[in-house]
Request: fold
Amino acid sequence: MDLFGDVTTLPSGRRGRPSHRWSQSASDRVVLGLAMGYKPAEIAAGLGISLPTLRKYYFSELKRADMQRMRFELWRMEVLAREGNKGNVGALKELEKIKASRDRHLAEQRLKDEEADTPEILGKKEQARLDAQKALDDPDLKPGWTH
Reply:
């Protein structure tokens, strides 16, 4: 094993690089990297493997990339709650910060949704311009013979 816990393979006398071997610690690093927002190419570089090798050996972790951030946040809250139950006041304060941040995020999302639902208020000149354009497009107001 090397300094970072990766399994190292000694040269076998054969040509080329030794094939990559899947390990739980590397899998955990892939999941953690995805949770922190790293791109697969960055994770592959951090593990010292190519992007195709990352995709080959860690496809299941990459397939669930979009949910890794939420999994990390839930795990973090679980750890903080356990520490809070043991009497750790710092953990309880951190949980409260997470809750306040989440409440703020939800309130901002509600405001954005409400803003999207309200129609845009136009000034007099803009409204007159839009009405004139609609009148030009109205077939009943165009000159000429129609059936």
User: Anything to note?
Assistant: The helical segments are 24-35, 40-47, 51-57, 59-63, 65-85, 89-117, 124-137. The mean pLDDT is 86. The chain is about 65% helix and 0% strand. The two ends are 87 Å apart (CA to CA).
